[in-house]
Amino acid sequence: MKTLLILRHAKSSWKDASLADHDRPLNKRGERDAPRMGQLLLDQGLVPDLIISSTAKRARQTAELVAQACGYENEIVFTRDLYHAGPEDYLETLNIMAEDEEVVMVVGHNPGMEALLDVLTGESGYLTTANIAQVRLPIESWDELDEFTGGKLVNLWRPKEVWG
């Protein structure tokens, strides 16, 4: 069994309209929520063995804040392949990058993350900013991951529900 943590980036800022979408940073709420969700992962005993993130600034910042808060000790893998990615892009990235890790976290964007959750579990989950879906996958190796995995949604954490 493998565990996939699907983390939508934390809340981003729209203050500077001149910034390209890829370059938008987190806003104050995002900067607050991301470390809280990292602490949640630490409390749940779900520190990832590998974190793979979109290269968008808001996703990078989210991944870094979560990693620091949960005590993640490895390097974060940043890939542009997860920017505006669909489920097939996430699956391909996991097939290529994940090896022996038991718990892998992907940090990215909607609508691809919601579609990934649906593809892996058959459940629709609305992922607002900084939400983490914990999916248990009946696979021994990440290269077995495909669209017909039959994963189970174990938890769906939302900052407002966890921290009020």
Strand order, largest beta sheet: 3-2-4-1-5-6
CATH second-level architecture: 3-Layer(aba) Sandwich
Rg for CA atoms? 14 Å
Structural class: alpha/beta
- CATH class category name: Alpha Beta
Number of helices: 5
Major beta sheet, specifics? 6 strands, mixed
CATH fold assignment: Rossmann fold
Stretches where pLDDT falls below 50 for ≥5 residues? none
Summed up, the domain count is 1
- Shape, please? globular
Let me know the average pLDDT.
Answer: 94
Distance between the termini: 32 Å
- Give the full name of the CATH homologous superfamily: Phosphoglycerate mutase-like
Proportion in helices: 25-40%
* Element pattern in H and E: EHEHEHEHEEH
Strand-residue fraction? 15-25%
User: Would you count the extended β strands for me?
Assistant: 6
3D architecture notes:
This protein is an alpha/beta fold. The chain has a single domain, classed as Rossmann fold (3-Layer(aba) Sandwich), CATH 3.40.50.1240. 34% of the residues lie in helices and 20% in strands. The chain has five helices and six strands, in the order E-H-E-H-E-H-E-H-E-E-H. The protein has a six-stranded mixed sheet with strand order 3-2-4-1-5-6, with helices on both faces. The protein is globular. The N and C termini lie far apart (32 Å). The mean pLDDT is 94.
